[in-house]
Amino acid sequence: MKYYLKMKKNKFDFNNKLFKCLKKRNIKFPISSIFSSFICKNIYIIFLLIFILLFIYNKDLNNQNVLQLDQNKNKFFFFEKNQDELKYCDNYGLFIYDYYDRKREYSHGNIGDYFQSLAALQYLPKNCKPYFVDRDLVRYYYGPKIKLIMNSWNLLLQGNKLVSQQITPIFLSYHLSNNGKLPDIYINDLKKYSPIGCRDKKTRDQFIKYGIDAYFSSCLTTTLDIDYSINENERTNEIIFADFKLGNNPQVDDFLLSLKAYNLSSAIFISHIFHTKLNHIERFQLAKRLLNRYSRARLIITTRIHGALPCLSFNTPVILINKKYNYRRFPGLYELLNTIGINKEKKFEIRVNIDDNGLIYNPKNYLIYANKLKDRLRKF
């Protein structure tokens, strides 16, 4: 038996130390020798087979990743199912918006409100429909006991000065628009559920002034990537103007038209305003379609704060155009976005991140708050 195999010219020598060891001990193992010889003579084929197996394995992993992404995109949404076949979630509610303030019923609404509800929906069970609660009528909810994420814009009305005893509220991303004196009944109710997570620092400071434990939580729509994340190769070339048009401000126009990396002439105009003749299921469907477009777009330019904030979570480049600094809504959120317009010093300002290729990119400081919101609501 030979334990040293010499290859032909232009081949390499294969010295098997194991077989030498066997020889010293007078152990014969012809099968090993045959196996060794086979490896030597077919080494290139073996390497090729290993490469093919690794390629198939990596391809399978990629397919699994795509599958996981598809599953993420196709998560269960109650408003896409036959409502008669669904059962209610026993413990969860979700905000809807009837736009009625006892004086008049509004004919138009803002789809950004439903963006906020879709952000909350991510943390609810996917196999049932939640109980609807009108944002302005939480005082008069008489259904089963539920948990409710109170992430919304609020004008203090008779119907929302108190929270129904049937509701266990979680105050996160809460905004109060009132500037006047707050009623004691409202203050005492908030204290029961404190600390209050406020969407903006103006609301936080207002609550602290009244002795309510409060903190800045940012907006829940910055976590919409849970249900609406995409693979970057799904991104389109769509440029969207949301409630914004060129021609209203020469300073804004000059800057935007200087962005040579973008063909703004191909931009598509959309509005967040919708007619309230749509029922709530249709409104949720409309909001989801719009969020899917935002998540895939190449660039969003908008005057809507709830057009801009979700784009942070999608990694969709976005610019917020503000005619003036909104002292009620902007504090805390303004710093998270690319912005063009009048700042709090009442001066025109361009605060937009642009890379070396002329492409816009979003600030990442929103993640500090978005991650905390996710951690808090995973226990919801």
User: What is the number of E strands?
Assistant: 18
* Major pleated sheet: 6 strands, mixed
Give the CA-CA distance, first to last residue.
72 Å
Domain tally = 3
Strand order of the largest sheet: 13-12-15-16-17-18
Give the C-alpha Rg. 30 Å
Number of helices: 11
Poorly predicted residue ranges: 1-15, 17-25, 57-74
Rounded mean pLDDT score: 86
Tell me what portion of residues adopts beta-strand conformation.
15-25%
The secondary-structure class comes to alpha/beta
Query: What is the H/E string?
Result: EEHHHEEHEEEEEHEHEHEHEEHEHEEEH
What is the overall shape? globular
User: Percent helix among the residues?
Assistant: 25-40%
CATH architecture of the largest domain: 3-Layer(aba) Sandwich
CATH first level of the largest domain: which class?
A: Alpha Beta
CATH topology of the largest domain: Rossmann fold
